[in-house]
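Consider a protein example.
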Amino acid sequence: MSRHATRSRALPRTYLRRRRQRGNAAIEFALVFPVFFLILYAIVTYSMVFLVQQSLTAAAGEGARAALAYRSNTDPLAALNDRASQACLRALAVVSWLPGAGSATGGPTSCTPAVNMAPAGCTNNASMDCIQITLSYAYANKPLVPTLPLLDIAIPPSLTGQATVQIDPENLL
């Protein structure tokens, strides 16, 4: 057999192999794409959860710092309650970018102040007055990224940020 005849027979086999492989890339893409999409979607979703959690904690800290501002009042309990309400207003202003933010209680974002006066005072120093700011966000009600049926199991229904400030009772009024 001549060299030319061998070459002409090999060409149809190669052509047939290539023809059988046609569409393989589309099938492989169809099988691999959902897995890659789920991984990317999980990364984005959990990044948003961590963003909200960090924002709530930072806002609670900002609210606690706002409670240190002087409020003139003659009654120590009223002064602490005024500071606590101002702290909640400041904390809610910091997280106003969240959907449904701005309600003192009952909305997706809520702020709960807790006031402890001396002598009960703070847990680590009973002689100090404490204001504790707790911010909560109902992530299940208002998610930043729509959830997929399988991924919503691992997402917490609500996120909470908390901060406490100690105030010396002698400097309260």
